[in-house]
Amino acid sequence: MRPFNARVTQPTPAERVLSILTAAHSMTVVSDGHDPIEVHRLDGAGAMGHVHLHAPPEARPAHPGTRVPVRLELTDIAPTPVRDRMRARVTVTGLLLAEYSMETTASTCMEFGQAVLDDHNGRAFVTYAALQRTDPDPIATGEGAMLTHLMDGHSELVPLLLRLAQPQPDKGMVRVLPLAMDRYGLTLRLEYPGTHRDVRLPFAKPLSRTDQAGSQIRSLVAAARRVSHLNRLLA
What we know:
This protein is α+β, with helices and mostly antiparallel strands.
């Protein structure tokens, strides 16, 4: 649970898992005794549009029938050409009432077991209750387009935003690119020969709508310009 009145600057593991499930472009469905099924072109529906997760029953049925153990494997890939584009892996385990089929047009019902998030922070386990308490990130499905637009249409702003980084970049930095964005802030990747470092730039307040992203980026740019102006005055 988040501290009362604390300023939130990054998503919880449950928020990360929900965003990846919502924005996924592909996933792998793995069932015991069957070859993995690669599901591509999720058509903007994400994994949640193809697999409906629901809570496990309080008591197991006396005759479980054809319940099929299954796991969904998803990867979160940065939309920009940063070094090491793999941002996270999500594995969701559970049971299906029947074998997964690519032919069905309806959402497949999956009894949720657990979700595992693996990223640079390590491994986190997410329960169904935690997912149910989590609000979808309003920019989850638009993040890729937003970051690409920032990089291609406003590339001059990225080095400017870097002036907000704490600590400041070490000497020898090769380049800086936007890595990720969520309702709480923007992440930049600073690349050096043979290594990299990520910098988090929190928004003044979390986004509640997609159309607020532009104003929050402009606020960060304005703050970066104030820092630059102050540094010139103190020089």
